[in-house]
Amino acid sequence: MQNGNNEVVNAVVSILTFPHYLQAPLLAYAWAASDPFWIMSAKRLFLLLPVLAFIIACWLTIACVVSIIVRGNRSAFVNAMFITWLDLGKSFVAFWGGIFRFVFHLAVVMLELVKIVLVSIWAVVLEFIAMPFRLLGNAGHNLMYSNVPWLAVIMTLLWCVVETAIFTYVTTPLVMDTFANITGEYFTEAFLRIPLFVFLFIVVLGSYAVLATMVEAIKSKDVGSIIGVTVIELVVLSVEVVFLYREFVDSLVPWLAQHSENFELGIWGTLVISTVVWFGIRSMSWFLFASHGTPTILSIIRGRGTGTVETRDRAPQQPRPARSQSSFLAQVKEDMAWFERQGEALLGSFILPPLQIFAAVVNFCTLLISSRHLFEIPFKSIRDIKNAATLLSNGEHAEHVEERPQTNARQPRREERFSMVESELYQR
Q: CB 3.0–4.6 Å: which of 76, 320, 364, 388 could bond 60 by disulfide?
């Protein structure tokens, strides 16, 4: 009889401790210490965590089965236990599928990252290649559609530079001889040409300034100003013809004498030709660009800016900003925004697979302690994982919900007792 009882006890103990006989072989198979490296890595990646969760779930299930003896609503508890095992199976499938999902997301993100880097490099290269052409185009657009005649200003200054360079080359020997006769020393051409170029540039630009002032005086019909400016213009004409254009005509005398016999130009012929050349150059440049560029230059020199200059009667045009290759930069921005959005998905696909199994094991623990589940499995995104404060508040809310029916059941009894006492007092 005693042997029979011992056999029954041993059978019950064996049933209650059956995970002890399974855990060692399962762990050895999942650890795969004697297998090749790639098989060992695959087993540890795909099987080790599910095997550990299965063993823990078996031990917790035994504890839950033993606790059925002292529980109230046994049928609901048994149903919850089967549902917990179903959630554990879902967590296994979600774990294995999540690994492949993470690998897929990682490959897609890496390819997109390589694409972003290549597109960024290509956009930078195009920026450097297209920048000079774009700046020239924008500068041309601003020059063509600006209220200020910048093209005329530039052409006026360039013409002054060209005319000054010609006169500097022609008058340098005369200036060297003049300084040598005055000081008795000879200066080199390199030493004289820079200050001579600056001086002649001011003279040429001043000639256009006097001409612009005379035109303004004629427009205003101020007789006094017209006479005064005309006298100044004649003086300027005389100085330029005698000291600049005369030298220019003298440099052409050998060419004229080569094609004629007994050629003698004389002083008056030289001055007449010089005056005609001055008048022709000034007229051509004035009517072409200097009439619009010189007033703007004078306004800038006087500190009035460019707003007081008379411009053409047209609507004001806004300067076009220097834009870059917007298509490439917009594509780069879109790719960066896509990469930021995929960062959360990549993090979720990395965290969710193991958390599925951890949540299933935690559900076994909460089922044993409070007869309910803490998590809803499977997790679809990282937002399904609630923080600790939310989980604790949900647990407290569930306890209050379980206690509320008991208080509602006691309330009618209290009302019945109160009505009975009130009726007795009324009868008395």
A: 364
